[in-house]
Write a structure and sequence with these properties.
Blueprint: H1 22-25, H2 34-40, E1 68-69, E2 75-76, H3 79-82, E3 116-122, E4 130-131, E5 146-154, E6 161-163, H4 166-180, E7 185-191, H5 204-209, H6 212-229, E8 233-237, H7 252-267, E9 272-278, H8 281-284, H9 289-293, E10 298-302, H10 326-332, H11 334-339, E11 346-351, E12 353-359, E13 371-374, E14 386-388, H12 389-397, E15 404-406, E16 411-416, E17 419-423, H13 426-438, E18 443-447, E19 453-454, E20 459-460, E21 488-500, E22 508-511, E23 517-518, E24 521-523, E25 530-539, E26 563-566, E27 582-585
Parallel strand pairs: 3-5, 3-18, 5-7, 7-8, 8-9, 9-10, 10-11, 11-18
Antiparallel strand pairs: 1-2, 4-23, 5-6, 12-13, 12-14, 12-17, 15-16, 16-17, 19-20, 21-22, 21-25, 22-24, 26-27
Helix pairs in contact: 6-7
């Protein structure tokens, strides 16, 4: 999750093999060579040295999260890494697991993921979108058990919890008031992707966690913050501990455990604690999940943003793939089971937005075809390559478009002109919840409820499955000819109600229950007066040059695991020295190839 949602891209990394692109790859346009596909799916990298086992630099490096160490010295899951028997391909069982793990559901029931439902609400949705913005008191909360406000930050010097924007603080009590009269809890989420971007706060988490004194300052401030505004818990969104390209330090792994242990001891009886997890093993390997598990109420797994335009810089290339493809997710969750985490403590991530591309060839418009750039921006989100679910539904409503259900991927695709968008709606989210229940997940989390809203219901959607807010966008399962909407404009009229802004802000704003995120519409009409607003959306299909971002599709690898003194490093980027010293074995990382993916949440 990031302070600017649409800039977040989780580093894609799949372990094991998959053939989810096989059929599409046979198309004349967008064909994917077999070796390229296997490397894109993270089976190995032939130009990198061994990183685990007897051939690793130390001769004894183990694989994080207890995944398998292959005979060649690579960490991963699946038959390429975990096979035993033949000496040429045998797994190195002293440096990780050698079992083939596949969790299925017999013991947890058919609806384990239906019980806990968490929705994130982005504070920037109140004012940053150009249209369709909503306020906390217009959020639809039907079906939610928790609502997380994203994000607050931490002062880089005092380690006090603080607002990322002074305007956000005005909304805290408005947000927590939602939970006072309803059967759900309001929590604050701290951090996000942008918090560890290069800048003043890039090393705040590492410094905060590096020693007892700093951790105590943070926990004391956090407890005061939660009590002051009425939050019932805190979600720690550190993206990502340990990862050098995210300003992490190898000592973060164990320091994070120490932070959670001390948080649990100080506030765990009164407040909830959760931690956001990446789906990608590249980042997940820095989390000591078994040690963390006893100190948190639950984890949130970000099973979205698996693909995007950043793929152009890696082995995957300019190939259309869905950012919530369940076939890929199935491989990505395996390290959780190798680590021994209780799936009942994990919330499965759901996305209320789609990612899209501008096609290289409009006649090839399916998963596996090639693309030349991001899709056109939405009218409210104003970000190329992304459309909120509300924007997608409006597009379908006011055109002749018919989405297609991709059964294997459990997602939908929408094609028009030279555009392709992959997304989830009520139909596919219901499928994903059932799938998550089969793997015994304990709940779901939504990023983010402000990206879908319904003027009929008066607020953002909360729980998409089994509730009236989120609608099916229609299903076409048979292969169809490309349907092009007319280029031009269409308008939708939305009844909106003027509501007072918090004291200290200027004027009043039209809160558009049918929108998603954007700047307030100023109006001088009396508060409470209903207005009719016409939003005009222009549909065009311009040629867009491919844009490139730093990216990397990498294997999870480790170098030797040295013993370091936590909190007493002497390198310029190390956490500030603290009183006392604790020694932990940690895993250092080494990049293989490519560049680093920016992230989104």
């Amino acid at each position: 999750m990031t302070h600017q949602n649409f800039e977040r891209l989780s580093k894609p990394l799949l372990l094991g093999s998959s053939n989810h692109l096989t059929e599409a790859s046979k198309l004349k346009s967008g064909k994917i060579p077999k070796l390229r596909m296997r490397r894109a799916l993270g089976t190995r990298s032939d130009d990198a040295g061994a990183t685990c086992g007897k051939s690793s630099p130390s001769g004894s490096a183990t694989c994080p999260l207890n995944v398998c160490c292959s005979s060649s010295g690579y960490c991963g899951t699946g038959s390429d890494f975990c096979s035993l028997g033949h000496s040429a391909t045998s797994c190195q069982e002293d440096y990780g697991s050698c079992r083939m793990i596949s969790r299925s559901s017999s013991s947890c029931g058919a609806d384990s993921a239906m019980g806990r439902s968490i929705g994130y609400f982005q504070l920037d949705s109140v004012q940053a979108r150009e249209c369709g913005n909503i306020r906390p008191d217009t959020i639809g909360v039907d079906g939610l058990t928790h609502l997380f406000l994203a994000f607050a930050g931490v002062d880089s010097m005092s380690f006090a919890v603080s607002a990322l924007d002074p305007a956000h603080e005005l909304l805290y009590r408005e947000f927590t008031a939602l939970g006072s009269s309803k059967k759900f809890e309001t929590w604050i989420a701290l951090g996000g992707w942008a918090f560890t971007d290069p800048g003043p706060t890039e090393k705040t988490w590492s410094k905060l966690a590096s020693c007892p004194d700093n951790r105590k300052k943070f926990i004391t401030s956090l407890k005061q913050f939660l009590a002051k505004y009425g939050f019932k818990g805190v979600d720690i969104d550190w993206e990502y501990p340990g990862a050098p390209e995210r300003n992490g330090d190898p000592r973060d792994t164990q320091n994070f455990v120490a932070l959670l242990r001390e948080m649990h001891a100080e506030i765990g009886q009164e407040y909830g604690i959760s931690v956001a997890l990446p789906a990608s093993y590249w980042y997940l390997r820095w989390f000591d999940l078994r040690a963390m598990e006893e100190y948190v109420d639950f984890f949130g797994l970000m099973t979205y943003d698996l693909h995007g335009t950043w793929d152009s810089e890696g082995d995957f290339g300019n190939v259309i793939a869905g950012h919530t493809d369940i076939a890929e997710v199935q491989n990505m969750i395996l390290p959780l089971w190798y680590a021994g985490v209780d799936p009942a403590k994990i919330n499965f991530g759901l996305a209320y937005y789609g990612r899209g591309y501008t096609l290289s060839n409009p006649s090839c418009h399916a998963v596996g075809c090639s693309w030349k750039g991001p899709s056109d921006e939405g009218p409210c989100s104003k970000t190329k390559g992304v459309m909120t679910l509300h924007e997608i539904e409006n597009l379908i409503l006011h055109t002749r478009l018919r989405p297609q259900l991709l059964q294997k991927e459990m997602m939908k695709e929408l094609t028009f002109n030279n555009q392709w968008i992959g997304y989830d709606d009520a139909d596919t989210i219901k499928m994903k919840k059932k799938w998550a229940s089969q793997y015994c997940f304990g709940g779901t989390m939504i990023w983010s409820v402000d990206q879908y809203s319904s003027s009929r219901e008066g607020g953002a959607s909360s729980n998409p499955e089994g509730h009236s807010y989120l609608k099916s966008t229609g299903i076409t399962t048979a292969k169809k000819s490309l349907v092009n909407p007319p280029t031009g404009v269409y308008s939708t009229r939305i009844a909106s109600t003027l509501q007072s802004r918090p004291r200290g802000s200027m004027g009043t704003s039209i809160v558009n229950p049918g929108g998603t995120k954007g700047a307030a519409v100023r109006n001088s009409a009396p508060t409470g007066q209903e207005q009719t607003v016409t939003i005009t959306i222009t549909l065009t299909a311009p040629t867009i040059a491919a844009t490139k971002t730093d990216s990397k599709i990498l294997l999870g690898t480790t170098a030797p695991a040295p013993t370091v003194n936590v909190g007493n490093g002497s390198d310029p980027g190390a956490p500030e020295p603290c009183t006392g010293s604790e020694s932990y074995p940690v895993s250092a990382t080494r990049a293989i190839d490519g560049k680093i993916v920016p992230g989104n949440r």
